[in-house]
Amino acid sequence: MSATSQTTSAPGEAQTPGGRAQPLLSVIIPAYNTETYLANALDSVLAGRTINDGIEVVVVDDGSTDGTAALAQRYVEAYPGMIRLVSQPNDGHGGAINTGLGEVTGRYLKILDSDDWFDSSALTTMLATLRRFAERGETVDLVVNNYVYEKKGKRHKTVVRYRHALPRRQIVTWDQTHRFGKKQYMLMHALTYRTDVVRASGLRLPEHTFYVDNLYALIPLHKVQTLYYLDVDLYRYLIGRDGQSVQEDVMLGRIDQQLRVNWMMIEHLSHVSVSEPRLQSYRLHYLQIMCTISSMLLLRSGTPEALQQKRMLWRRMRLLDPELYHDLRWSLLGQACNLPGRSGRYTSVLTYQLAQRFIGFS
Asked: Residue 222 carries which DSSP code?
């Protein structure tokens, strides 16, 4: 681990136990065999900062067998005190985030997958916003930004924004938010949590499991009291590369992991209650989306085993929490993915394919 330079605290800025100024923002980059992409991710962080930004980057090499760790080490040596490398045996995406969460010291936390990148101008705006919070002594639990689907071969880029659902550039509470549209669900890419909020939520992601970013985007929300929507296109989300976990054929091959995460989300909503009606409304909205994706993937598979798994998902939910089941099953999306008979399944899949094109995520 590299030596760390001494810095002077800015107004409103805390210090780490070692006497250094606490970074405004910690960026965790989980990395597994992404030597081809990692430099772009790191360069995007460097391009968006200034000398006084107070940012730290923790690259977690998750047992890579290519040159990922060596590449990261070159950046550690070039930017001592700012970039750190932690290497571990392969634990999966969730295990790498868990490790990073134990390492970071920043006031705020953002995850950057190693094949994605930040828009440099938007990152500069984000850092200036976080610094303003610190200087004014304002406590903001969650900053929400836009993200862009950077689909290979697609000229038109889909941008997910939260206008109308969230007031812009205001510190608000959940009761000041509005109804989220069907494609307005806050994936990990949209979220910058206050680090203490994530830790207070008790988040621990399952290891060797894909799709755990949905847990990261859901579980800490019950500890979020204040939000701020920064309407900038910060996160660039690469989709369409070969073997990527969100490709439909890959998701079908890993449906057991999708269902595991989906069920953990159901259990969380069943066991962790919230008093804010609009927060609960959003949590239900997000879970509806995930249950729909799981159900439609199983319908797309069409095998007797897959159809039985779909029935069991909804049956288990009804047994665990009848009220939650009722809220989800009789929602518009819940009905759309549970149409009866073969013709109903055909209609459900067709509707899902149209929604994919509208939303633009695959």
From this structure: G
SS3 328: helix
What letters, b where the CB count within 10 A reaches 16 and e where it falls short, cover 129-151? bbbebbeeeeebbbbbbbbbbbb
Note the pTM of the prediction, 2 decimals.
0.90
**Per-residue pLDDT tens over the stretch 203-251:** 999 999 999 999 999 999 999 999 999 999 999 999 875 655 556 777 8
The span from the CA of 188 to the CA of 63, in Å, is 23
Query: Both tokens of residue 243?
Result: 């073997």
**Overall residue count recorded for the chain in this entry:** 362
Which ranges of the chain would DSSP assign to H, the alpha helix? 35-47, 68-78, 92-103, 120-136, 195-200, 213-216, 248-253, 255-271, 277-301, 304-320, 322-329, 332-336, 341-359
The pLDDT tens digits of the residues spanning 4-43 come to 333 334 444 566 655 578 999 999 999 999 999 999 999 9
Rounded to 5 degrees, φ, ψ at 229 are -95, 115
The token pair at 61 is 């090499």
